[in-house]
Amino acid sequence: MNAFSYSAAFITFFSVVGPPKVLLAFAGLAQVHTVSQLRTIALISSGAAVLVGLVVGITAPWLLNVFHISTPALQLAGGLIFFVYAVGLVLGLHLGSSTTHQDAPDLVSGVRDLLMPYVVSPLAMTAVLIEAAARNSFTWRSTVVGSYVSVIALDLICVVLLARVLRRTHHATIELLGRLLGLLLAAVGVDLVLDGLSDLGVPGLYLRH
User: Fold this and answer.
1) Angle between the N-to-C axes of helices 122-132 and 3-17, in degrees from 0 to 180, rounded to the nearest 10
2) pTM
3) Of 73, 139, 154, 185, most Cβ neighbours within 10 A?
4) How far, CA to CA in Å, does 85 sit from each of 90, 149, 153, 154, 178?
5) pLDDT tens digit sequence for 123-140
């Protein structure tokens, strides 16, 4: 692996699916799960995230080719989905969750709640696909996947070490941080959409850079 390329990819994935964004999702689960359950959920969801990242990263060029997806279209789709999810955070809506956490939460419900923000994060998967398809080289795709897996491993370590702290965090604090993060993530989603429109040649958008 090229050290600079690896570090650049690592920073990219850290910004879209690193501990600052992931810990908040786990903090919500910590309110209704025991410490041991939270750690098990973190292990299972991280393993699933790694598996998804491996498959998507290694097969990125073929996936884009088979579905006839252009990079701008991918940016638009990922940005729109992430924007909707972020708006849900701002409004206090838990999109993609079928549980209300009122009845004995289990491991399955915990992992399910992490599907959108973590296991198959639209922003992270968009980044994996775009980065992996940027160069027609298996070595480069391995670099991208390696950096993504490193960030997921860092997420797992942080959750395991901070599980007790997350469980003791007041619900009101989590709600406040969640809505603030949602506002910031909505801006990220809009930015990604604008990138896609700019790549499609929509006039005037390049001036924002």
Assistant:
1) 160
2) 0.78
3) 185
4) 9, 23, 24, 23, 12
5) 889 889 988 888 888 889
